[in-house]
Amino acid sequence: MSDYGVITEFILGKYHYWICIALMVVGFYAMIAKENLLKKIIGMNIFQTAVFLFYISISKVHGGTAPITWEHAVIYDNPLPHVLILTAIVVSVSVTAVALALVIEIYRTYDTIEENEILELNRVEEEKNLELAGR
Amino acid sequence: MIAHFPILVIVVLLVAAAIVPLVGRINRTASWLTACAGCLASFLMAVSILSTVLDSGRISYWLGNWAPPFGIEYAYDPLNAFVLVLVSFVAFMVAVYARDSLEKELDPHRITPFYAVYMLFVAGLMGMVATADLFNLYVFLEITSIAGYVLIAVGRKRESLMASFTYLVMGTIAATFVLLGIGYLYMVTGTLNMADLARLLPDLYHSKVVLTAFAFFTVGLTIKIALFPLHNWLPNAYAFAPSVTSTIMAATATKVGAYALIRVMFTVFQPEFEITVVHVTQVLLFLATIAILAGSILAVAQTDIKKMLAYSSIGQIGYIVLGVALMNHLGMIGSIMHILNHALMKGGLFLVVGAIVYRHGFTHIQDFVGLGRKMPFTMAAFTIGALSMIGVPLTVGFVSKWYLALASLDAGMWYFVPVLLISSLITAVYFWRVIDNIYFKKTEKEEPATGIQEAPIGMLVPTFVLALLCIVFGIFASFPISVAEQAATLLLMR
Amino acid sequence: MEIIQSAAPLYAVLVSLLAVVLIGVSGRNPNLRESWTIIAALIKFSIVVSMLPKILDGTIIEYTAFSVMPGLDIAFRVDPLAMFFALTASLLWIVTAFYCIGYMRAGKEKNQTRFYMCFAVALSAAMGIAFSANLFTLFVFYEVLSLCTYPLVVHKQTPEAIKGARTYLFYLLGSSIAFQLAAIILTYHYAGTLEFVAGGILAGTASNGVITLIFILFIAGIAKAGIMPLHIWLPAAMVAPTPVSALLHAVAVVKAGVFTVVKVVLFVFGVDLLKEIGLGMALAYVASFTIIVASIMAMRQDNLKARLAYSTVSQLSYIVVAVALLSASGITASLIHIMIHAYGKITLFFVAGAIYIAAHKTKVSELDGIGRQMPFTMIAFTIGAFSMIGVPPFAGFISKWYMALGAIEANMYPIIGVIILSSILNACYFMPIVYAAFFKPVPLGESAKMHEAPAHMVVPLCFTAFGVLVLFFASPFLLNLARMVVTSVTGGS
Questions:
Q1: Range of C382's domain?
Q2: pLDDT tens digits, B395-416
Q3: CATH classification of the domain holding A50
Q4: How many domains does chain A have?
Q5: Which of C137, C201, C207, C286 has the fewest CB atoms within 10 Å distance of its CB?
Q6: Which residues of C touch B439 (CB under 8 A)?
Q7: Among B162, B173, B180, whose Cβ lies nearest the Cβ of A122?
């Protein structure tokens, strides 16, 4: 195999990893860099989903069938990651639910869901409190 | 029955979490009682587990009787049995305390749900400690985290919402990193059981996948324990949460995170891995040093007592990580002792703050003038906690610092001794400022003599129990040290 | 050497802790409260005295209270050295207890209950230091002493008092955590034990460089001994009420410091080790510097208590220099000076307090003719001052005599020069006071009628002044006790 072959194999042969990594980075970026809290949550979901996809992709066995008791099921995919990810999805949904609830509450109190604006409001209030206390 | 304690110790909390909202229909006292009963039952079982472990060695419990590595295993050795007792004890004390504190700090309709979430939070922590299965660890980690977000967000100050959200984002990143790490390990070994991993991994130590997995674990868990520089979620989370939440989180959550880090570093991966393959301990030592110093210095700059305690927690985490990263027997004992110490000291101090909030509603250090007269008992507890934080001998704080200092010398790294001592001094500075206000500063305007305004007995007793334990374990440290010693021996065994 | 187990030293420590509780609960009844202090002081003194005959027989009393963690015990040992400090502190507590009553009531001080409670704790700590059998126990009580005297120093709670008290605590606690604890940790690391053993525990365990480092850390860490530049806390602590300055900053706290130095020199390092490395000589010269400089600074103080404070700094270094000579007579001088200086200096402080209460004067320049108004007080002052200078037949002479002998034995003749020079300096800053008090006319507008402080104060200060005389004539007893220590630490050579 030539050098090009190795590189092609590295890129194409493991494409599912690349997809996961790309998704992860996209999600991670959104979580960190976006000011809008909802976009953060969306990023968080993409981030988690990337990991789920990674799990699912490693469970695939070459030429395997669905992991059910079946006469042709000589080779079958690893069912365990599926089960694990089922749990992880539940977790992820719960986190999202809590996060959304928080955002709703934040919107009610601050009238905005832009992080920088909220922090600014907090800061202004803190200064006001300090002035009131006469310090 | 006793044979099932290893699982019941967690299940009882989950069951209680389910019952709490139901009995909450009767009244709030009923839900409080249920929560206390659940924590107490869990604590007693944890004690029984610890005594069994100390008597007859490791306990292995197979969930649903599925043999590991296929089934989920709960395994107890001196280390996690010890942490289990500690967590359940603090949880019980805080639950007892919660009644009066929550009435004051929470909207009435939120109190019963709070107890339910509280139980879930504790159950998650206990599960993290108990399990010997990595994926199970992740699930419990998330249970704790989600419950934690809620516990913070119910604070009355509106800043608590944003604090909770920040923690949620950071926590999710951490948990997802851990999940990814687990995935990598599973990919190369096909198992999730810790003991099984420990058996299979040494052959694969140089595999890139294993290295990546380790990196994800370390980063994920150091976010959870708020090791500098990944600490930014912690101060606001502690400062704006209700006092009960701040206490339980400061006293147990980061400790359990530290436990998980120890487990991953020394049981899933063996000490050899850190010595020969990845020199992660160098990084951890460096970060721990900065955490110790930066946490203390930032604490000096705070004017709010809760923020001050939060920053001091960041410094204290540094101590725990320092002991772990020294990779020797004494250091491990020091770390484990510091897990105990910090839970008692910081727990006690946050309870004191809760009592001040209950009576007077302020958390500004400058407002504390004259509190020594108004709340003599609470302030006595504060003083004990503060002395222990400084590390005055005959308090628990001294014990762990002593071991950490000896461990540094043992490892030939004497330069950590000055770090420890300097941070003790800085700790003395920021606590003494508070103590001066409490006892020795004169009030500017002559207030009418209000007499004693103590916290209610339900808050006073748990506060005092934690404070007194700081002294008891400072004077009779031999028992926890012997447990820590057994744990250290097991962890560092080659 | 016979060793017996007895809990007597523990009781000597505990009795004043028990008194703390009793004082605390009887805060509303001042007479009852003060009687607890006096009763506790009497019991403490009698316990200490009851141990004296056995000690003089050459017996050693040991008691292990409990073990904190492996290698670290709270344990007590009573030996002749401990007796010097214990006897001094416990007897002078009784005297001070009476003096306190007069001072605190006449001055109408607030927070008296807290004051008496902390005082009792301080005495427990002093006993603990005296009787400690290992470095850990000593360190524990050393820290307790720093912490429990803080409320005493800050007593007035004025911004000035808080500032002074913070300086006080910063130096004492700071140096003990930063340096002394480090030294203890290193000692444990190298020697594997913290036990006090005659002849030292560090010999042969580490390189000379490390031992020098440990020694420097110890000396820097024992700020209570007031060696420059770590003496600043002592003048700062003079914001405290005078009984505190008297008992704590002339006896308990500072003597705890020099006592610790003596213990560390003799029982951790050992005479031979220090001689071999030459650290004794280094310490002697550093402390000599303190003696001279502190004396000069004392001359510049107009505030009487500040002058006494600097005089204390200088006198403490006598003790350090004497032990650092590492010769038999030097060690003897050091030990007896612990006791002799205590009596002299407490008298002087008592006088300062009596003048403050009776005449509301704090400055040296205001003392013209005061000897006519307060004759007893000023005679006591004169006795104390003579003892400081070292004039026979006052006790201070004996320690200076032995110190000079020690310097000759150790072939360190410059030290004799230091002693002579500092005696002259002592005279320079004490004699003008005596002269002004007795020979200068009373300022205009003041009557020369006798106007003494309350009897509660005058009797104690006359008692301690008398003690200075007694100690001169009782010196054989002191020398005998000191000889026992010297024999044990030098192996009889």
A1: 278-493
A2: 888 999 999 999 999 988 889 9
A3: 1.10.287.3510
A4: 1
A5: C207
A6: 151
A7: B162
